[in-house]
Amino acid sequence: MWNVLLSFSGLVALIQLLFLPFFPESPPYLLLQKGDKAGCLKAMKQLWGEGNYHTEFEDMMKEKAVTKGTKIMNVLEVLKERSVYPQLSTMLLLLLSLQLCGLSATANLQESIIPYVSLGVAVSELISVIFCSSIIDRFGRRILLWGGYLLMALILVLLETSLLLSDQFLWMRYCSVILIFLFLIAYGIGP
Fold this sequence. Notes:
Elements: H1 2-19, H2 27-33, H3 37-48, H4 54-66, H5 75-80, H6 85-97, H7 114-139, H8 141-165, H9 172-189
Helix pairs in contact: 1-8, 2-3, 6-7, 7-8, 7-9, 8-9
């Protein structure tokens, strides 16, 4: 019944994909990244109702004033910064631990290929983290979430199809592995 369990994550992603357009952008993102005060206030009103949220807005304005001269670093600049090495090592440790997640077993591959698939899983996660961190400021979280869930749903449909056909066509097993990698990248970029 592992295919039902795998489909469950696709169902949850589909539900979130359907409801995501009805939620506003994050107020801190609108104010701090986009500089949109009116959009920030509108999003706060939509999230919190007619209550008094001016204290939170003032706190965000103070944070904007404090970070005004701060430069947003790109991925290479972050990798050169020694102060973030503990956080980077923690992230890499988590990514490398994905080798033990068991995704390589879903494709029904030969045992000799599974270590390479596990390595591919970790590389896929690393690619998604680097790619997401470099584009999140440009597109915002909402677009990345929406696109990520949409891609995940599509990839899960293709993965289920390739798994069903893998007994008839041996090359479909390799398509399943590629789809697993793509699913992980879509998950890392979106959710």
